[in-house]
Every structure is written in C-alpha cells, then in structure tokens.
Amino acid sequence: MAELEDSPLQQQLRDRTASTESDYPIYVVVGTGPVGVRCAQRLLELSDEAQVVIFGAEAESPYNRVKLSQYLSDQLSLADLDNPVLGQNDGRLAEFIDRKIVAVDRNNKTVTDAAGNIQPYDKLILATGSTPAIPQIPGTDFPNVYPFRSLRNTEDLIRLRERSHHICVVGAGALGLEAAAALKTQNNRVTLQSRTRLLGGLLGDEAEGYLQSSLAALGVELSIGDAITAVEGDEVAREIHFASGKALQTDAIVLCTGIHPEITLAQQCGLDTARGIVVNKWLQTSDPDIYAVGECAEFGRDVYQFVRPGYEQAESCSEHICRRHNPGRQAKPYQGSYRDIQLKIAHIPCAVIGDVDDGEQYVYRNRFKGLYRQLTVRDGRLCGAVYIGSWDEASQLRQAVAAGEAATPRALKRFAQDGHLWQKSAARGIKEQPDHYLVCQCNGVSKGELCTAISQGKRNLMDLQQATTAGSVCGSCRPLIAELLDVPAPNLVMRHARGILITSFVSLLLIALAVLMPPAPISESVQSHWYWQKLWYDNFWKQVSGYSLLGFCLLTASLSLRKRWRKLTHGHVDHWRYVHSLIGCGALIVLVVHTGFRLGENLNLALMLVFLAATTTGALVGVFMARNHHWTDIKLREHRKWWSRVHYALLWTLPVLLAYHILAVYYF
C-alpha cells in the first residue's frame, strides 16, 4: 500500500502531535480484524470531519477472520478474504499495517507503536481481539503443533493437509469442527479429539448423534470424552496420551481449544479488566475516552466470541462517539447479544439459535437424509431452535426466533410431520419476500437495501457486498444474494463446472443419436462416401476404432483411482473429473464410428445398452455436479448419489461383456 507517512493526512497528524488544539477530531482504532474495520467504517460514515486512523499488528492487509475455515476448505480464494474499510472517506482514513501498538498514554491521549511512532487521539477504540488458548499440557510446544487463528496459521494448515497422513484436531467447538472437516482429504486421516461433547453439549444428545454421524460420513474420526495428559515425541510430536491410558499416533496436531481476550494493552495503561476489558452500555472502558469492542470486551460479565456481537458493539460505540456530529440521530446503547452458533461443516449446515434449554421441545428427524430439527417453544412462542442438515426455512426461522413469533398448534403439528414450520405452498423465494426481510443476519441488511443497491448499478456479488456489507461475515446469505442477482454464488461453483456441463450435454446428445439415428446399411452403398466405407466396413479400421474404444474405457476407469487411492494425490480432483468427462465424450464419438449407429443383436445389443446406460448416468452425474450452485445440498445429494450408484453398478458389468465381445469376434 502507499506510504501514508507522506500523505497530507499524516502531515496533519504530525502537526496534531505538537498541538493539542484541532478543528477536527482524531479517532484511533487499534485492531484490523472485522470488528475494528467495521468501527473505522462507521466512524467515517457518521462523521463528515473526523480523521480515522487504524493500526494492525499483522503483516497482512485487513482480512475476514470469520471466513478462514472456508478458505482452508478451498471454498474461497485468498481474494475473497479481503476486508477493506469500504465507502467514500475523502482521504480521512489512514491505515497502518504491521504496526503493533505497544503503549497507551492516557494523560497525553496518545498511542505508541513498536517502532516508537506516536499517534494522538481524541477517542480510542481497542479492538484487539483475542489470542489462542494453548492448553497447559506437556508437549504442546513441538513444531508440528499448530494453532488455528490467523491467516498465517491457515496457510500453514493448507500445506500441512497435503503432506500429513494423520492429523489430530483438538477441540470440538465451532472452529474445531470446521477445521476437522476442512483438513480431511482422500489421502489423510483426521481425528477430532475433545474432552467435552461437541459444541460444548449445546446440541443435546440426539442432535449430537446426528452430527457425529455426519462427521463419520465425511471420514472424520471422533475421540470424545477423554482428556489429553501429554504429547510425546522426539523432535516433533509423535504420540498423544489420554487420561484413560490410551495413546494415539499422529504426525501433526491442530489446537482449536478456545481463545483468551487480548487485554495486555488495557492492563498496561491501567484500565479495568476481568476476563476482558470491562465496558458499559456505550462500550466505554473505565476511561471515558477509550472504548473496547469485540472479543476483547467484557459486557455484563459476558465475553462474546463471535463476530456478530462485535458488529453490534461497533454500532453502539461509533454512534456514541459521533453523537455530536448527528444531533438528530438517537444512539442505541448495547444491551447484549444472542449467542447463536451457525456453521457449515463441509456441506452440512449446523446451527443453535436462541434459547434451547428452557421450554417445550418439538422434534423432526429423518435419518435417511441426515436431518434433525428441534424447536423450543415457551408460552406458545418460538424461543430457540437446533438443526443439523439443510433447512430451506432457516433464514425465516432465525427471524421468527429473534422476534419471538407465535407458533400455532397446527404449525407445530405440520413441523412434526414433515419438518416444515410454514406451509410449503406459502414458502417464498427471496424475490417474493417483503423489502424489510433480513437477508444478511450478521450485518442486518434487508432485501430492500440490496434491491436499492442493485438499482444503483451494483450488479455482482462483490460490488453488492462492498455497497451494503451483506455477505461479508459468514457468507451463508450469499446464495440468497445471488438469487436476487440471478447468478450462482461463485464460492459454490466447482472447478471446470462449465466445461463438465458442456461435455455432459454433448454426451447425452451423442447417446440420443446412437439410439434414435437409423443404422448404417449392412452392405456397401454407392451413396456412401469412401471414408464411411473404411470406418464402417474395412476390417482394419474396425479394429482401430474397437481398440480405441477399449482404451478409452480403461483410461476412464483408471481416472477414478484419483478419488479412491490415497497415495495418488497429483492434481485437484475437479481436474480429474473434467478429464474423465472429456474422455467419456470421446468414447461415445468412437462408439458411433465403430458401430455406425447399429445397436446390434443378442449379446452385442446387451453390451450396447449397458454401455449407453453407463454413459448416460455418468453424464447425468456430471450435470448434477456442474449445477451444484443452483440446487440445494439435499436435492443435489439425492440425485447425484442415486445416479452415481447406478453408474457404478453398470460399469462393473462392462468388463465381462467387453471381454466376451472381443472373444466372440476373434473366435468366430
């Protein structure tokens, strides 16, 4: 980025250091995480004259820490993590990256960075976040024991995933669950270990059982309820020992064992602290000119470890700081936040919404589809929910729980029968929802705000996100935003999706021609061109096309080894799928050349029908994979799984029929 030290703003800031009087306020934000960035953005929006200075301790430009699990699992690119301060700031913003603040002088109202540079402030916001909690267990200092907190940690884990055979993820909170699923590949073994239950037991016994089954289906092994006593090894960690006396061999350990609020700076300058930096309803610390927000702040003896409460705190804090610039605007005090948990483990959504402990519970379960849905109702009103697996009513449900909407006996009866709280006929897509419908729960962005931005020319996901902040936190609302734009969400599109879709449709067209086209005449015709005569009637060219077809079949079958043979790791699976579809399409072209649109009789007819059926189901699987971004997970899994099984079953019969066909041709 540009050297801000030479900018006019920086010159003004240096002048301010020598003079305590100024016509404009200077607001300093310490921390470039999502909450710190949100504070800087709101301060610029709420004040036309304030100068905002933001300091970050990390070497990377501001990025969205919430999306690191999605980046680890290859659902997002590095560019998708970018989290700049958005909006027009007219040169009133100064950003300093890799400039850790080491001291706060409350008397002179200045902060000092690690290089000794001094920055004055009128108001100071501490958004210092948290640090990983490393358990006090012997051996956690080995070099192959990794925390998972920053972008740098994530890059380490991406390299670790490719070279390790057995990774043990310690901690079964939201981060541990997402990390275990993201680290699992076809070529490694991942064990999720925790001394307590999944998500700290918030799910309940039955829901936790469903989640355990889903993790097992992904290939993640579980070791729950047995505490680690030591990690042993030589130069690196090799073995984990448990309180039960068991031991686990591993070649890498990932710690997702919680976080500690980063309060060092606050303690050094004498602010009141407990678990976090103690704040009031305006997020002010014991010094009224210093505020604290996010994971480092403690409000009402609560420290929140999710980003949505941090955003709510940033709103109250910024409004309170800028209240003199907006005399007509009523600042809202912070009153605490819901502790909702929402995560996506691979393709499996999981959420705990509202209060699920106290009330009457209603449950819908479908073992075949891996669905579990639980509603908690108190005094006839929705107060909480738990679900495992996709739920098309999830967004509407979150709003209903937040508003404490009434749940009628008829609706609860329908829920127990089919898992839907609202009538399917009444279910509406995002386009049919009213303008006040909240699309982005994390940032409180409504459909009306999104439609306004679209009408102003924001016609792609990135532009819309920058204009409204929708989809910039967890990303779960991006499919809804994409639906408004009539485009697929790019983070859901597999590699080579367009190419696989085209080759799949071409394959289906060739199959239709092979079945419907009239067969070439048996005898040579004067109307036939010489090249058709050679291909269809010359014995040499018949053998060339026949063996080419056999070679295509063997090559196509060998490509499936990439998915099933752990030692074969070269290239991304999507690249192999694309090559697989191209070869399958090529095999159909050779089949037409070899048979001349003749289906044959008896055994040859059976061989042709099986081959065409196998390629048909394979092409349909390709269509479903390529269109993943347009269908829900459940719909995709139902169709793709069924066609895949039929495809595999047909492929097993082909070698026998081909062998008999070749034997019959040469024998007779």
Automatic annotation (TrEMBL):
Bilayer-crossing regions: 500-520, 540-557, 578-597, 603-625, 646-667
Pathways involved: Nitrogen metabolism; nitrate reduction (assimilation)
Domain FAD/NAD(P)-binding per the UniProt entry, residue ranges: 27-311
Cofactor: FAD; [4Fe-4S] cluster; siroheme
Keyword Transmembrane included in the entry's annotation: yes
Superkingdom to which the source organism belongs: Bacteria
Residue ranges occupied by any NADH-rubredoxin oxidoreductase C-terminal domain in the UniProt entry: 342-402
Key words of the record: FAD, Flavoprotein, Heme, Iron, Iron-sulfur, Membrane, Metal-binding, Oxidoreductase, Transmembrane, Transmembrane helix
Protein family: Belongs to the nitrite and sulfite reductase 4Fe-4S domain family.
Descriptive protein name: Nitrite reductase (NADH) large subunit
Organism: Microbulbifer marinus
